[in-house]
Amino acid sequence: MQSYSLATLLRQSLAGHRGWRAAWRSPEPKPSYDVVIVGAGGQGLATAYYLAKKHEIRNVAVLDKDYLGGGNTGRNTQVVRSNYFWPESAAFFNHSLKLFEAMARELDFNVMLSQRGILTLAHSHHEIEGLRRWANAIQVNAIDSELLTREAISRLVPLLKMDGRYPVYGGFIQRRGGMCRHDAVSWAYARAASALGVDIIQQCEVKGLRLAGDRIAGVETSKGSIAADRVMLAVAGHTSVLAKMAGLRLPINSMSLQAFVSEPIKPCLDTMLLSPVVHMYVSQSDRGEILWGGGADVYTSYAQRGGLPVLQDTVSALTELFPAFSRLRLMRQWAGIVDITPDTTPIMGKTPIAGLYISGGWGTGGYKAIPAGGDTMAYTVARNEPHPLIKSFGLDRFASGALIDEGAASGVAH
Amino acid sequence: MLRIPCPYCGVRDEDEFRWGGQSHITRPGLDATETVWADYLFNRDNPKGIQYERWLHAFGCGRWFNLARHTVTHEILAAYRMGDPKPPLGRGAE
Question: Of A75, A190, A254, B37, which residue has the fewest beta carbons closer than 10 angstroms?
Answer without folding.
Answer: B37
